[in-house]
């Protein structure tokens, strides 16, 4: 971001009454209303800012991002869903659908993500998972698959719930990781974005006796350039929650907030989102850190090599298995963050050595956190010295 753009951005937030986070400045925890907050680089999954981001808390309707992505991946959009008595009994916010009504699964996803309808979440869960319990089991399995070890789903809609295994909860870091999966890794990421970015949506029930209207309540979509997606949430235990993503000048950032105020403080989540997104945009830039250096050669003890004298030490060329000139590692870093490169290679190898055999790694660290690792391979085969090879070498030396 150039100086002029950065200056205009900071001026804009000053005019909006939000304290600006300037380039190079730190963001203190006391400046955020949320009890728990996370700013994540969506490309790498690295946490750029944390405020109690590993604390387990209820997450309200931000739960529905997992419900949506599972329905997209495991459901059929043209399936007819019949409203059960249990689904019809869900509290507001709800569609108000009656037991026995039928809807296409695809339409219910818009009710889920735009209106945040609780009955739509239960209808989806019962259709895709066979039951609410079956679907939440799928939700918890998916959470583990994508690395969310501190998340526990009991409901598909995020209403406050508790059972013998704990409470319906997540952490700000896990919530950001779930949205990252939805927009960066899922095979249905484009469908997820299309639904969650839709300003409004209207649909009928299957019998064409009732029309339903949905309006997107994610105000963040109109607050900042590059806003991608997001989901709000509120329950009495969770307070106001939010998770959202923004893409600007090559950066994709995710903000997640838990317990960000209670009634009469509805706007806190938007102020915190602005602050964290602005902090990420103004303090982090992509930097090329890959070291394009020759890895050299490594001695091979007791190895034979044609064209060398018997007392020469055999060696093998070290390589990445790809053209070094074509390799890149671009990381989102603060100006004061420095990468350390560690070459984990043995002092020597023992014959025999196969061409393509992995012999070590090159690691890129930020502090003590490993960010990237590249395997290093032997570029040439080296056979072990045997009796016949030695005779051959002695004979060659004698003839010379």
Lay out the secondary structure:
Elements: H1 3-15, E1 36-41, E2 47-51, H2 64-74, E3 80-82, H3 85-88, E4 102-104, H4 105-115, H5 118-129, H6 132-145, E5 162-163, E6 166-167, H7 172-185, H8 189-197, E7 200-204, E8 211-215, E9 227-235, E10 239-248, E11 251-258, H9 268-283, E12 284-288, E13 297-301, E14 303-304, E15 314-319, E16 330-334, E17 339-344, E18 349-350, E19 358-366, E20 369-378, E21 383-384, H10 387-399
Parallel strand pairs: 13-18
Antiparallel strand pairs: 1-2, 1-11, 3-4, 5-6, 7-8, 9-10, 10-11, 12-16, 13-15, 14-21, 15-20, 17-19, 19-20
Binding site for substrate: 231
Catalytic activity: Preferential cleavage: (Ac)2-L-Lys-D-Ala-|-D-Ala. Also transpeptidation of peptidyl-alanyl moieties that are N-acyl substituents of D-alanine
GO molecular function: serine-type D-Ala-D-Ala carboxypeptidase activity
What structural class should be given to the helix and strand makeup? Answer: alpha+beta
Low-confidence stretches: 1-23
Kindly report the average pLDDT value.
91
With helices defined by DSSP (H or I, 4 residues minimum), what is the helix count?
10
Write the CATH homologous superfamily of the largest domain.
Answer: DD-peptidase/beta-lactamase superfamily
CATH topology of the largest domain: Beta-lactamase
Q: Biggest sheet, open or closed, and with what strands and sense?
A: 6 strands, mixed
Calculate the terminal CA-CA distance, rounded to whole Å: 68 Å
CATH class of the largest domain: Alpha Beta
Strand content bin: 25-35%
Query: Given the C-alpha coordinates, what overall shape results?
Result: elongated
Fraction of residues in helix:
25-40%
CA-based gyration radius: 28 Å
CATH architecture of the largest domain: 3-Layer(aba) Sandwich
Number of self-contained structural domains: 2
- This entry's quaternary arrangement is single chain
The count of strands amounts to: 21
Binding site for substrate: 231
Pfam family, one: PBP5_C
GO molecular function, one term: serine-type D-Ala-D-Ala carboxypeptidase activity
GO biological process, one term: cell wall organization
């Amino acid at each position: 971001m150039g100086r002029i753009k950065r200056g205009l951005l900071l001026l804009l937030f000053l005019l909006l009454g939000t304290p600006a986070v300037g380039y190079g400045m730190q963001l203190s925890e006391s400046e955020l209303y949320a009890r728990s907050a996370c700013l994540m680089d969506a490309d790498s999954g690295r946490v750029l800012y944390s405020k109690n981001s590993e604390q387990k808390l209820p997450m309200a309707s931000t739960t529905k991002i997992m419900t949506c992505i599972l329905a997209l991946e495991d459901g059929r959009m043209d399936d007819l869903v019949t409203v059960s008595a249990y689904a019809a009994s869900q509290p507001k916010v709800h569609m108000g659908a009656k037991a026995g009504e039928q809807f296409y699964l695809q339409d219910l996803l818009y009710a889920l993500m735009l209106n945040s309808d609780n009955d739509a979440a239960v209808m989806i869960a019962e259709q895709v998972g066979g039951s609410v319990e079956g679907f939440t089991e799928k939700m918890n399995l998916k959470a583990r698959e994508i690395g969310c070890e501190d998340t526990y789903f009991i409901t598909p809609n995020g209403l406050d719930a508790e059972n013998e295994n704990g409470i319906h909860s997540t952490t700000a870091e896990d919530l950001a990781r779930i949205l990252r999966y939805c927009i960066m890794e899922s095979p249905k990421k484009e469908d997820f974005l299309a639904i969650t970015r839709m300003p409004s949506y209207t649909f009928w029930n299957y019998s064409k006796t009732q029309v339903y209207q949905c309006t997107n309540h994610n105000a963040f979509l109109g607050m900042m350039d590059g806003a991608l997606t997001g989901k709000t949430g509120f329950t009495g235990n969770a307070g106001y929650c939010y998770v959202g993503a923004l893409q600007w000048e090559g950066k994709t950032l995710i903000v997640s907030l838990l317990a960000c105020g209670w009634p009469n403080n509805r706007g806190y989540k938007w102020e915190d989102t602005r602050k964290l997104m602005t902090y990420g945009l103004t303090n982090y830039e992509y930097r090329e850190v890959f070291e394009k250096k020759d890895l050299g050669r490594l001695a091979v003890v007791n190895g034979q090599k044609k064209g060398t004298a018997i007392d020469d030490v055999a060696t093998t060329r070290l390589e990445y298995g790809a053209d070094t000139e074509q390799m890149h590692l671009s990381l989102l870093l603060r100006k004061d963050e420095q990468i350390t490169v560690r070459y984990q290679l043995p002092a020597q190898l023992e014959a025999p050595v196969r061409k393509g055999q992995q012999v070590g790694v090159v690691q890129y660290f930020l502090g003590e956190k490993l960010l990237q690792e590249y395997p290093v391979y032997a570029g040439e085969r080296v056979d072990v010295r045997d009796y016949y090879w030695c005779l051959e070498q002695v004979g060659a030396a004698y003839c010379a």
